[in-house]
Backbone:
């Protein structure tokens, strides 16, 4: 079983890439929240393919229909289901090679798991396309958080081996910085680095290859006291969701893996009383979380996104029907780098996770 | 809410460091599993403090009592509860400074979360001591997995800035290597590196400071097909549990963050038919998981463990009662590096997570 | 939160009576189950209104569309979502009286619960119409159970004060009896009683009033050993679902309330070895369940369905806007007795509950 | 799996009748609730055996120890575990007959379920003794509810065929009536009926037989708006818990099964504005629940408790080892009627269910 998550905000996703529709049901939204359809569309557009030469040429309109839980422009408090009908599907591209396991994809594991009965076309239920409903749900949650002053923003920290030279001040980052990043289709701090990243993606595309990268996400204005020790820790909750996003292979909070190279006296975030009588820390190596619970400092984490497995280069693989070694050449239209389109997905799922932790 | 996790194997933990007892209830164990009490004791001894000069001088016997779900040497299939009575507690050490927030600890977030009603002594419910029941439960699960041929092993990949120079062959690691690591109280591949790591820990201890490190864990002989896409992916399940372990700040699978620096053509694990007619991959950059589901290759992940926040050095902090800046000097007996004792905890929680994913 | 249930078979329902669509997502169906669309249609037709003069004149086609989890005529193992688009809605009928609380309905409680933001038209999310997706899901589950030999059947035990004079032999009822009942739109054993029941419904309709009744349901060929003590008992599981069906106000297993009038020596079902070396009981007062677990005898329970609250007679109520006492006369087309249409719903939800208990 | 229930207040029970201990962990209690140990003891005493000649002669002290989640007299907000050590067990009584299936008990179903590995002594995990931890948890929850003005009370409506002639005014029952009932070890309204009930129990005891009965429970001062449509309805939630109590075979809300004999015009609870400007109903046939949600009227339900299956009379059964028909004569000390001791259990589990529904 796979498609349901949450306890206060429960989401239930469904759909296959080339089936009739994909969608999501959100249970637990409080009644009376205004739904800003334009805001949702903007968020979904950030994820949609076909917008720049950095992404796949596939055009997916991602036009959603809200089927329930929505009345007079607001949430009703009952389950809200939205669907996106599928179209522009070149299923034939996939049929030809459906017995050839695409390396890095779930073709093999999906077949084993579902005893060959799964819809393999376009990755089926494993498709990155399933992240569109997550962005829909995330937009709803994010708007609710924003009304409470909570702002989410991300930057691309690296593409392949190119890193953003500048870094966010994770102790005192403000709302404007995060909102600016959110408006940028390729959010980096050092624009020159950003250009180099884009060039490397296009170069990779030209070579029939692909690139990955790291996304850094920050959430500000979270009150202290959210989350729990152990199994409902903020880290547990968010990592659970982040690792649900296809292609994510690593998650770290605050200084993350780097904190292991620090001494305790360096890593510990020392406290002080701020001028406005709040308890703050001088540093934020713990990324705003101690004992699984927010401490009021910015929440900071990073997600590692692997290079798109769909590449044009020939690859060694096996034909699972006749169990022979073969050479595979994938056709179809694919993203040379999924990182820019993954940014709104990461932010969306963060919004879902945070609202789930906060909602009573 | 915090203390319950799982769907097929459900665990429910409870306890505070200086309360009457800590414990765990495990629901969902199949009836008829022989319980090897010596094996459990061994596993718990690996985690217990006071054994070497690398760990705290606190002696905790960690003697467990099984209260239920156990009859004639076997599991009954009903909830199995085990408790560990607390003793050797120097509660006075903590009382003196209970209003002084210890940096890096959950003193502040716990107070906010629980409105000051939580048992602060020794970290209370946030104490690393709560990992003892997890090791108990993990030992039960691990033994069940071992009967199916599944073996778990770990090594300390780094302590502070010192890295184990050798590396595990994550494509073809065998059972013996993992079992050898399991028997070692300080498991590294390059023994010389291990000695340097130990020295650095003792040096750090002498300075009143602490160190962190990275633990690499490997699980072999898992069948392909375990896990689910999206919310019950192997990565989601294990990261959820791993981030429940106090001090873990990062988790990565396979090449993890490093995979972002590879091209798709390098990152993709190409398939081939093995001599014994199995589908295998030449490389294992995805750590044995594709689409959230095991592919039959070794499961590989790494956890970043932060330096112990309890250090003897003076630290800046605030007194939360009178809200003034103060200087804190923590007394008491603490681990200069929790990494070696975290190894069996990581392995235990891995066993719980894997059995939960596999059990029907 | 309300719309998600289950652990092995998870269902997630959504929709409002006069919204765009109603639907259900079923997560946890094993891959490879053939889906018999005609069978589903038949089951849904049993519930659909407008078929006889005993039910409402509203015509609802209840044409379902499967959006996901379905490929080449079979379940894929991924979440299966089906929707039914709404039509033939006379929303105006409801608008006029939307501030007048209909006695026996959820108008008042829904308003309080959802702070007036719920879609009140046609009962909104509280509408009996939401049982259509349950029948869809139940049909899928029932077919899977039937392949294992498990058969579900029901009879109308009473309508108002008229009781079916005959009774099912709950010790040795066979498959044919249950299948015959399933094919009958008004299943009773004593046909003459059945005619009287129908007459009383029509009489009640003529008086602008309504009737309720009791449905007895039987499941045969369940293996012994299904269910759990305490919180996952068969009774807990089924009653949870049965009380989710609108209008159900009582549930009893075996002799139910009547068992309280028996002595222990009468109530206890004594065991014997059957000729085919099975352990059976002479009587079945416990309805096939002991300690929350099936014992291999027929599972028997009864559900009390209250008279349809929508009646044409004038009723006292309040206008919730101006908080004044008023007289309400409900227009619209309503069932004079929901019992016959509730039979397939009860059976459907039973199938869901049983499969959830059985599936591993 | 069986022993965990709840979403906001989660309970996890464990233990066997003749094992080391039985107990419960409660997760989700808000921090800072004063724990009234005497109140808990009183409640547990109401359930404890050996107090009058109406119950078993077994003496169980039911002395609980709180192991966690409790500090300075209050809940800490972390999981609260309490255990009761077992003693006064005559395990030998059970061993002799352990292969002889006791009719009406879970001996057979438990064996099948747990493949013979369950602890059969004294009913093991199926023992009514497991209700002691439920009463402990219920007492905690009940006290929290009482501070909000919510009062729970019950009466024995019938023992065998003898019914309490008087009835509670379920429209306007007040707190004092309920508190009086709570203090009575054998709560009935018509004391003469109560005496007859007691006599019938003693008569039954003399005959080596047993009796059952019906318990009516009422909860007042619940605000309107608690519960949900469908799967988290008040009826679903409470019936789930009530059917977890051993021996309960029927549950009905409001008029329950009797409502099926009423016309809609009789069954509908008409609304009016009360003098203090509240919306009330003239009648309460729906037992305070509409659409699964409380309407502010008293919550009323009834539970059918079957006669104690342990009787001294000889019974036909089978020896499951050699699969032969045998005659069983149960020895040991048993309740001739469990109803009076079930009253506090029903109330306790009601308190847990209600708090779970109300807690945010």
Residues:
């Amino acid at each position: 079983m796979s498609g349901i998550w949450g306890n206060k905000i429960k989401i239930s996703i469904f759909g296959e890439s080339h089936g009739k529709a994909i969608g999501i049901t959100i249970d637990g939204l409080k009644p009376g929240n205004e739904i800003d359809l334009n805001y949702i569309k903007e968020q979904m557009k950030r994820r949609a393919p076909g917008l720049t030469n950095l992404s796949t040429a596939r055009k997916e309109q991602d036009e959603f229909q809200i089927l329930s839980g929505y009345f007079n422009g607001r949430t009703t408090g009952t389950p809200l289901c939205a669907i996106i009908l599928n179209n522009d599907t070149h299923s034939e591209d996939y049929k030809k090679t459906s017995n050839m396991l695409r390396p890095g994809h779930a073709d093999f594991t999906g077949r084993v798991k579902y005893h060959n009965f799964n819809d393999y076309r376009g990755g089926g239920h494993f498709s990155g396309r399933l992240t569109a409903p997550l962005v829909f749900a995330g937009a709803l949650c994010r708007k609710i958080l924003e009304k409470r002053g909570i702002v989410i923003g991300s930057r691309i920290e690296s593409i392949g081996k190119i890193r953003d030279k500048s870094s966010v001040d994770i102790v005192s980052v403000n709302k404007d910085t995060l909102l600016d990043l959110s408006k940028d289709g390729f959010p980096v701090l050092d624009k020159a680095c950003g250009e180099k990243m884009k060039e490397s993606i296009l170069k990779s595309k030209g070579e029939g290859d692909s690139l990955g990268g790291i996304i850094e996400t920050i959430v500000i204005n979270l009150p202290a006291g959210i989350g729990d020790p152990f199994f409902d820790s903020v880290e547990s909750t968010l990592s659970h969701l982040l690792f649900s996003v296809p292609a994510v292979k690593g998650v770290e909070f605050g200084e993350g893996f780097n904190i292991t190279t620090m001494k305790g006296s360096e890593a510990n975030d020392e406290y002080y009383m701020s001028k406005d009588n709040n308890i703050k820390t001088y540093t934020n190596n713990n990324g705003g979380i101690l004992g699984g619970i927010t401490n009021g400092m910015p929440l900071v984490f990073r997600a590692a996104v692997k290079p798109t497995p769909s590449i044009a280069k020939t690859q060694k693989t096996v034909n699972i029907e006749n169990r022979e070694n073969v050479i595979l050449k994938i056709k179809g239209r694919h993203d040379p780098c999924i990182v820019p389109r993954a940014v709104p997905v990461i932010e969306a799922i963060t919004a879902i996770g945070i609202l789930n932790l906060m909602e009573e």
User: Anything to note?
Assistant: Chain A has nine helices and 18 strands. Residues 25 and 81 of chain A are 4 Å apart (CA to CA). Chain A has one domain: 4-358. The first strand of chain A starts at residue 4 and ends at 5.
